[in-house]
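Lab notebook, bench 4. Still working through the backlog of constructs that have no structural model yet. Next entry is a single chain of 312 residues. Request: give me the structure tokens for it.
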Amino acid sequence: MATELVFSWAVPEDLAALESFQAAAYGADSVQTIPGRTRWMYFAHPLGLHVALCRQDGRIVGACGHLPQIVDLDGRRIEAAFGVDFMVDDGHRRRGIGRRFLEMRLERFALSLSTGQSPGMLALYRSAGAVDMGSLGVATFRRRPSVDGPPRKSLRDAVLWLHGLASGGVRQDGLLAESPAAAIDAGDEPGDWLRWRYNGPVYGDYAAWRLGDASAYGRKAGEKRLVTRAVGPKRAELLATLARTGPARETSVLFAGDALRTDLRRAGYHLGATTARIMAVTLDPSLAARLRPGRLELTAEAADADLLRSPG
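Model written out:
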């Protein structure tokens, strides 16, 4: 006869047990078992330790990490939580563990967000009254066409390049200052959170850019530049300058939100959609009334969109 499942929030002393559970559940070659990743993502998070655990007979049989982040919803700043690295032992699935983890998240946070779900998790969010905020968009600017590669890729790159050539709106404006992410002055932005996110011990490949009062963070992967954060009053000009300068042939931004969509369009990016949907759940009726597609701004720095990769 199965003994009772016990749910709790992790405490600092649970690190070793959680790492052991992840190694067994995900496998030794998984992203989740990168040395130092679990400690950094959860136990060193400046907004606190928020990992939901399920135990049976004292052994962890399920876990869900939460990445808190301050989000802006119609001018209201809210601490939201993204559930990530959710895993349950094979022998304990279909016992309501995922539902209880979601309940725990809503007991602790005003807003629960998800930017990518399995079909089962999507059904769980919908059964909990989640609001579908729409799909995550992807904005791309191709600075130069491809010179090699398969025909389909060359055609795709040519279409993006021609779109950039034909686009109107803002253009590059002034000199772009670039530095390692660790060196930039956070100014009035959430400094502790930015240092944690972009100057942590696991990923050391981030850069920062500044143009006037606008700033951005991102990384280079091959011939592509991936922008994971862009803020400030001259954001459109910064995005245009990033797209048109530097060695990268292509610049892309994963995004959500009407205001950011407008800035990306003004900067000349080609706008498309991904298959990932943004689901939002809250127990606050006044907050639920504000949840509409386009009102919540997100980029790849949110949740784990840029963290499910190997370092380097």
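Notes after review: The mean pLDDT is 89. The first helix runs from residue 15 to 26. Flag for follow-up if needed.
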